[in-house]
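Subject: Sanity check before I submit

Could someone independently write out the structure tokens for this chain? I want to compare against mine line by line before I put it in a report. The sequence has 93 residues.
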Amino acid sequence: MPNNLSVMQEKGQITVPTEIRKKLGLKKGDYVAFVETEHGVLIAPREVIAMEALEKLGVMLKDKGITLEELMESADEIRGVLVKEMYGLDAEA
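---
Independent answer below. Compare away.
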């Protein structure tokens, strides 16, 4: 049985136990992510979830033989087309 329990308050607020806040380095004002899993809800610092997503993206790009530089170049080209279509501006000017 978990030894770090909190009570849900009226507006859905809970207190993250001090021991866990210290382990995760959480401070007042920090964002946390709630991820639903088959066993319950995972609470993690937002940065952890973002880094995991970036790592997965990196693996997918590597599997497709695409480098980060190629992805960035492609994004620049697409951005230029969109700027021209939406605002009539030449991104290279």
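---
OP: Matches mine. For the report I'm noting this point. Residues 68-87 form the longest helix (20 residues).
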